[in-house]
Amino acid sequence: MHTLWFVCAISSIIGIFFILIFLLYDAVPAFLDIGLIPFLTGERWDPASVIPKYGLIPLIVGTLLVTLGAMIFAVPFGIACAIYIAELASPRMRRILKPAIELLAGIPSVVYGFFGLVILVKFLQDILSVPSGESVLAGSILLGIMSLPTIISVSEDAISSVPRYLKEGSLALGATHWQTISHVIIPAALSGITAAIILGIGRAVGETMAVIMVTGNAAIIPEPIWNILSPVRTLTGTLGIEMGEVAVGSLHYHALFGVAVVLLLITLIINLSALMVMKRIKSSQTGGGSKKGLFSDLMINDRLSGITQYTPLGLTALLGLALLSIGMWYGAVCIVLLYIIGRLVDRYCIRQTIQKIWFSIIGLMMAVVTLILIFILYDIFSNGLPYVTLDFLTQAPRNLGRGGGIYPAIIGTFYLVTGSILIALPLGIGAAIYLVEYTKENFLTRIIRTATDLLNGTPSIVFGLFGFTFLVLFLGFGISLIAGMVTLALMVLPTVIRTTEEALKGVPDSIREGSYALGATKWQTVRRVVLPPSIPGIITGAILSIGRAAGETAPIMFTAVVFMQRRLPDSFLDPVMALPYHLFILATNVPGARNNQYATAVVLLVLVILIYGGAIVIRNHYDKKVRW
């Protein structure tokens, strides 16, 4: 059993190794033919021209612009919402808001993209009187909304984990609640908030489907660079758009794998940075690190004078971002004025007034995020629910998806999700059992955990490319059900490992010791004593994995799915239809299918909400039992 669990545990290392090897294998010919430096620094990406151009600068600039814009929106709103949930909300309100934020995280990216394409792009086009709303601004807003759950959840955990005696000591010394939050709690949680921002950046950089649908996909550098109404193309968007039509083995094909390698390296650097920050947090919490960690954070906060402490940062950023589209000077003047106003307010207003102002701003920002979630759900359900009929759920599509139903897509999604979970669940549970029960913390376990975290942070489009080159081409599976199952299993494997590991760690050591004292073997103890109380946590991880697998588009678009197929697959080597891909094609390539677009989005959203809702119910039930 020890050997079996060890093999399961190194599956993450094997996964990362194979992804790197096969991406590099197909990227090296492009690096050799084009040249690594010209490839990285070229200012034009135009593979279809008479003389093909393969320069990554427009794609990198596009990625950085939408990511920066997303963070300008998501960071202040995310931190404000985390403060509200952790410090200002009543227990009842907290029980409502936390699941709502988690549901925001569970909405599939293709549904966000559909909402952005149908509502956000048209709204920006009308309000700004521009020819097209597909732009940096649209991509930034949408990615900002998608990054919010990550930033809010991690920041809220960091704020809630600040020792209570720090807050009580500050209040005992006469500080107001806001002074305690801004000068004690936030500095103490600064490392966790930093990790949340880094993870949010990784979420934005790795997104594929949403940016394809709202950014315009023009491989250009905006002129001027701060023109947020210009269309752009990102690294992930390039892979999603061009990979399906490129000739295998061509220079263009190898150049796209070069793009994937650059994207993977960027995300690996981001995720390693987040891991280092989280390691520092864990070290300071367990007392293993330097005792000056908290005080160094306090010293850093003392240097954050002016706008970062006294000005409504979220409003400043949003207003400045909007004014940048008109001119750089307007944004600068806006920020300076708000800075001056903030300092004057701090100097001449009493402490209670300042606290009321800030609490009002934080409450308003929390309300905005909640209204965004409500509006997205309302728009999709109000427009799609009337068309979700029994025939729609039980018939095959007709007329390029404009008529008929989505029955093959529902069944195909079920096949993909079931197969991926049947592969990932045994491997993930086995890996967690090995890490918790069969070995102590050492160099190998640190490598396994790091590989698992890196696998978890790998963009979904990279999984799709790996599945295409390894499963579809190298192993000869073709576009097939089995290729999609394995690709999705590899993607959700880290979730299963980490949730199962946490569930096993929650079992008290005294129970294990009692089992050993009665003469049970290691495996008997694990199977009969440790696993039964861990089942709720394991089920939660499995449900979360099912939700993620059901809502993903990029990993299966090159490995498993087709748009139109009236019959169900007969074997594992047949392609299938899937709800996320069907919605993507309907929204981007089939005019006149508005009713079926919304109806498909409703079915996919209900499916994922039910899955994530089940995970939340199980977790809350388990938490109540633990508290009792």
From TrEMBL:
Pfam families given in the database record: BPD_transp_1
Molecular function terms, GO-annotated: phosphate transmembrane transporter activity
Membrane-spanning parts: 5-25, 56-89, 101-124, 180-201, 253-277, 328-345, 357-378, 406-434, 454-473, 572-592, 598-618
Keywords: Cell membrane, Membrane, Transmembrane, Transmembrane helix, Transport
Localisation per UniProt entry: Cell membrane
This protein's GO CC annotations: plasma membrane
Segments forming domain ABC transmembrane type-1: 60-274, 410-615
GO biological process, one term: phosphate ion transmembrane transport
Membrane topology label: Multi-pass membrane protein
InterPro entries in UniProt: MetI-like (IPR000515), MetI-like_sf (IPR035906), Phosphate_PstA (IPR005672), Phosphate_PstC (IPR011864)
Main location: membrane
Similarity section: Belongs to the binding-protein-dependent transport system permease family. CysTW subfamily.
Protein's name according to its UniProt entry: Phosphate ABC transporter permease PstA
Originating organism: Methanospirillum purgamenti
Gene transcribed to yield this protein: pstA
